[in-house]
From TrEMBL:
Keyword terms of this UniProt record: Aminotransferase, Pyridoxal phosphate, Transferase
Modified residues (N6-(pyridoxal phosphate)lysine): K190
Example of a GO biological process term: polysaccharide biosynthetic process
GO molecular function: dTDP-4-amino-4,6-dideoxygalactose transaminase activity; pyridoxal phosphate binding
Listed name of the protein: 4-keto-6-deoxy-N-Acetyl-D-hexosaminyl-(Lipid carrier) aminotransferase
Keyword GTP-binding: no
Residues forming the catalytic site: K190
UniProt superkingdom: Bacteria
Keyword flag DNA repair: no
SUPFAM superfamilies for this protein: PLP-dependent transferases
Family statement drawn from the similarity comment of this UniProt entry: Belongs to the DegT/DnrJ/EryC1 family.
Amino acid sequence: MSTISIPFNSPYSTGNEWHYIQDAYKEGKLAADGKYTSKCQEFFEKKYGFGKVYLTHSCTHALEMAALLMDLKPEDEVIVPSYTYVSTANAFALRGCKIVFVDSLPDYPGIDPNLLPQLINDKTRAIIAVHYGGLACDMEQIMAITRKHKLFLVEDAAAAINGFYIDPNKKRQPLGTFGHFATFSFHETKNISCGEGGMLVVNDPEFISKADEVWNRGTNRKAFNAGNKNKYEWVSLGSAFAPSEINAAWLWAQLEQIETIQQNRKVIWLWLKNNLPNLLEEYEIEWMKIPSHAEHNYHLFYGLVKNFKQRDELIKILKQKGILAVFHYQGLHTSPYYLSLENPIQKLVQAEKYSDRLIRFPLFANLNTEDLSQRMQ
Ligand SMILES: *Cc1c(COP(=O)(O)O)cnc(C)c1O
């Protein structure tokens, strides 16, 4: 076995993280909702025009918060792409909802909006639009459908920080500003990270006071601290969704340098785009395409090999050269848990294609492309 010299991902540090964590300690408050939590939340509200932002422990938690805020009940149906991370479906399955899977587009893994109308019925409450790999879904088409059927729209923008949607008039709008709710991840594999972290964006102001309660373990702590309530009580369902100031301090150091981090990733992404097709020519890989309605965020670089056998071979050969490439999502409609619920077997051609054939190459802010290039020869 050779050792891995070029990992798939390596967490990036600006160097200031340690300083801000010490400062958080000096502030005398390490629990949630202190100085650094506010700094991070305000950063997003100002820079991207998000509604109200709540830091969470993960995007998974942010999705669970959204499910609580929508007050989903066991008979409700939620439409979710099959080709996504487990949490996109699990957060709603936790509330007992029926998960209805939609297939992806042939030329990129986002939801195929044309398939949505036939999946909607009286029980449908929400559509979860995943901006796969930071590539925008077709928001015009999806929003026309959620508006027509009066459904909730949740953007699972886990990997989509600093990604934009370009509308037919060429106007650019940040991902995370479309849905009633949007969720993001700061897991170490995402562009901006604090190890494990995430946030919920609440764009519909009607849900803000409820979100304050759900975020605060189902209590009215926020209103009580503001002097608006004379008792601190259990008022709704909720959980300990708010992360500590230690996480927020780490995150703040990254947010301060988001432009640098994005620029580094852009240089590496462009290098991969310009060089991998030559270096891996013999595999006849179909390289990722950026949809015309998306300004992406250099989150990932992928290709489609011919079949999963060839993918295993390529992963093995790269590993021998010390490079770690990976595949990822396996369509959730074929997952052991979903099938254990006695759901009928479905064929979702595109989700199965991406599950079998998609390969992701290393991409992180301080990847050494010279080393990668030499090892690939
Ligand atoms: C990474 C990811 C998640 C999970 O994020 P966590 O912060 O690890 O919970 C959810 N959905 C999508 C689309 C993701 O890429």
